[in-house]
Design brief:
Helices cover 24% and strands 33% of the residues. By secondary structure, the protein is α+β, with helices and mostly antiparallel strands. A five-stranded antiparallel beta sheet has the order 1-4-5-6-3, covered by helices on one side. A two-stranded antiparallel ribbon has the order 2-7. Strand 5 (86-94) and strand 6 (100-109) form a beta hairpin. The radius of gyration is 16 Å and the shape is elongated. The N and C termini lie close together (5 Å).
């Protein structure tokens, strides 16, 4: 399962040198992940309305080259394994010239919205991912 999203670097995401602050890459990961779920017809807010929340368990990022003011970043999000207890979303961020800026991985868990206890991946999500795993 794979998706791409392009975003213009915004002024407030940069420091005085015009370089994107490292914390914004985690936001880019989230933008890409949310956009991917919408494109595949199962936005995260639908999963939450069905009573399952997806808290972040961990985030990894490897910074290679900085994005700069005026750049357009392309966020490539992918899921390569059908989740059971956790969902792993991989991300790659490129600039408009195709230069790899950052790679990352976000791990999400599944909890019941009322009890806040861990639950398995919702069936509709695992079915969706299984149907598109090789894309």
């Amino acid at each position: 399962m794979r998706s791409e999203l392009e975003l213009a670097v915004r002024y407030y995401e940069t420091d005085q040198m015009g370089i994107v602050h490292h914390s914004n890459y985690v936001r880019y990961f989230e933008c890409g992940r949310s956009d991917m779920m919408k494109k595949y017809g199962l936005p995260i807010e639908v999963i939450e309305k069905e009573g399952v929340m997806l808290p972040i368990v961990s985030v990894e990022a490897r910074y290679r080259t900085p994005a700069r003011m005026g750049d357009t970043v392309r966020i490539v999000s992918s899921i390569d394994k059908v989740p059971m207890a956790k969902l792993v979303v991989n991300s790659e961020i490129f600039n408009q010239d195709g230069v790899l800026l950052c790679t990352g991985k976000v791990v999400l868990g599944f909890i019941d919205a009322v009890t806040r206890h861990p639950v398995r991946c919702p069936q509709n999500l695992s079915d969706l991912i299984a149907a598109h795993i090789d894309e």
